[in-house]
Specification:
This protein starts with 9 loop residues before the first helix and ends in a 20-residue tail after the last helix. The protein has helices at 10-29, 44-97, 102-106. It is mainly alpha-helical.
């Protein structure tokens, strides 16, 4: 099962649009504008830095999801191999110990003599 990779979020797209607008304003005024406060400045540099942080985290997450998918595929292949081995043991046990032996039952099979036999219903004539 492939996991869905994260796409660029609408917030990042909106931030990129705002950053483009901030750049245009900075170019028109000839200086970097502070859209925040003195204690918490918000310039084009801070905006671009935060966009980069968010995008890097998204890319890291997508790489991890790909690794998880690869490991999951390997797990499923190994599990199928193990299932084949389990089935093969029981199938081959019939030839080695017979299908009506205690050993066959120990391996997880049902002894032939323990199987329920179908009972035919008799027809009633009226």
């Amino acid at each position: 099962m492939a996991r869905r990779l994260k796409e660029k979020s609408p917030i990042v797209e909106k931030a990129e649009g705002r950053a483009a607008g901030m750049k245009t304003v900075d170019e028109k005024t000839g200086k970097k504008q502070n859209y925040g406060t003195a204690e918490n400045p918000l310039t084009i540099d801070e905006m671009n830095a935060q966009i980069a942080v968010v995008e890097n985290k998204r890319k890291e997450g997508n790489e991890l999801l790909k690794k998880v998918d690869d490991i999951d595929n390997e797990y499923e292949a190994e599990e199928a191999k193990l299932n084949n081995m389990v089935t093969q043991v029981l199938s081959n046990a019939v030839g080695v110990v017979g299908n009506d032996s205690d050993e066959y039952e120990l391996l997880g099979g049902t002894k032939r003599s323990d199987r329920k036999h179908p009972v035919r219903k008799s027809k009633t004539v009226s």
